Amino acid sequence: MNPINIIGMGLSPHNLTSDHLSMIHDADILVGGKRHLACFPELSSEKISISSHVRDLALEIFKLSKTHKVVVLASGDPLYYGIGTVFVDVLGKEAVTIHPNVTSVAGAFARIKESWQDAGVISLHGRTMGCDLIDLIRPWDKVALFTDPKNNPALVAEFLLDQGVSSYEICVLECLGSDKEKVRWFELCDAAKDVFADPNMVILKRKKHGLESCCDVRPEALFLGMPDDCFAHQRGLITKAEIRVVSLARLCLLDHHVMWDLGAGSGSVSVEVAGFIKKGSIHAVEQHEDRIHDIKENIRRFGITNITTHQAELPQGMESLPDPDRIFVGGGGKNLGLILENACARLKQNGVIVVNTVLLSNVQAARDTLGLHGFETDLVQIQVSTGHAMPFDLMLKAHNPVFIIRGRKTL
After folding, report:
1. How far separated are the first and last CA of the chain, in Å rounded?
2. Are the C-beta atoms of 200 and 153 separated by less than 8 Å?
């Protein structure tokens, strides 16, 4: 049986070596995408175009290789987000010989003359863009994205902006290695309005001087217990600074955690949590569109990149979120018990739920629901009074007492 030679084309046929070309011209059967096969119109070998059913095709080619010399043409490097991985998985390592070449990522970074040993690489092929994409992008200052016709550069830029991420500039590289090649840099807001030729790929690069938005607005400094007026919010609908500090302390946050902020309101809790959760992710769920707008404004204002907003009326909207390590419930009203039922089921082992409420009935609802699920619970009630200036003195003004109920999932 002849080994199946899988040859990486690099960026174009110009990257093929003399050894590669010798194997291609000597092949009885040439397999590849239509674009790759079109590079060899002069060859009389049988040509098989790769369809979407790659695993079935691999089995068919394996049978043909018993009596024929088969060469498979792949993009870039066959084992780097390439077809070679599928062939090895289906046929085994002994059945194939891999011939690597320049990857499109290497070619892309060469075009912009940037190193890429410190870059992240993500494929969007056949993928639905969601909160997990933000989680993957966020740790990197430089990110290469393999796009596809659906997940194109304009959609990527629009998605990032919609999630409040404006801290990157974007380079779109169109038709790499061809005479139609274009390499262009954009602000995200400009790329979202443009149209790009296929095939293409994207490089995101975090801006050097802070996390500016498209309007070059610098982010606010972030610290624990930010004054309420630092946040965009409506008619006092915000977890007050003093309550925020205690609530965050009781959440026991770690760097890698996934946290849900349910009934997020202005997003003030999510924003301050981002100061503790740097490698994990935060998911702010809020039903009111105007408050979603406030959350996104606060994300932009503070330059946060790991908060994803979700507009939903709780308890709906929790199904698509990743399982959390921590949950903060700042809203819930009469649905608090049902919200906690769903939250308890999804919380990871040793996870923590913190509930803030001013309603006496919800104190009991929270304790009953958490207890029913075997959570260890504790309760703190905080009464805050703040100083207000008088013509010749200072007076204290009392705020509503807030109950902070914490549950730990230990079973």
Report:
1. 57
2. yes
pLDDT-based confidence at residue 392 (cuts at 50, 70, 90): confident
The predicted model scores a pTM of: 0.56
By CB atoms closer than 10 A (0-12, 13-18, 19+), residue 37 is middle
CA-based nearest residue to 149, from 127, 169, 177 = 127
Q: Among candidates 231, 237, 226, 259, which has minimal Cα distance to 328? A: 259
> Which residues have CB under 8 Å from 100's CB, separation 6+?
8, 77, 78, 79, 80
- For the chain, how long is the longest CA-to-CA vector? 101
**Is residue 404 within 8 Å of 383, Cβ to Cβ?**
no
Q: How confident is the model at residue 52 (pLDDT cuts 50, 70, 90)?
A: confident
Q: What share of the chain is helix, strand, coil (3-state, %, to 5)?
A: 30, 25, 45
Distance, in Å, from the CA atom of 299 to the CA atom of 295, rounded to the nearest integer, reads 6
CA distance 56 to 106: 30
d(CA 194, CA 200): 13
Identify the CATH homologous superfamily for domain 105-206: Tetrapyrrole methylase, C-terminal domain (3.30.950.10)
Q: Where in the chain is the domain with CATH 3.40.1010.10?
A: 4-101
265 contacts: CB under 8 Å, gap ≥ 6: 233, 237, 238, 239, 286, 291, 294, 295, 330, 331
Name residues whose C-beta falls within 8 Å of residue 363's C-beta, 6 or more positions apart in sequence. Answer: 357, 379, 403, 405
65 pLDDT above the threshold of 50: yes
**Distance of alpha carbon 154 from alpha carbon 346, whole angstroms:** 34
Whether residue 328 contacts residue 261, with contact meaning beta carbons closer than 8 Å, is answered with yes
CATH number listed for the domain at residues 228-408: 3.40.50.150
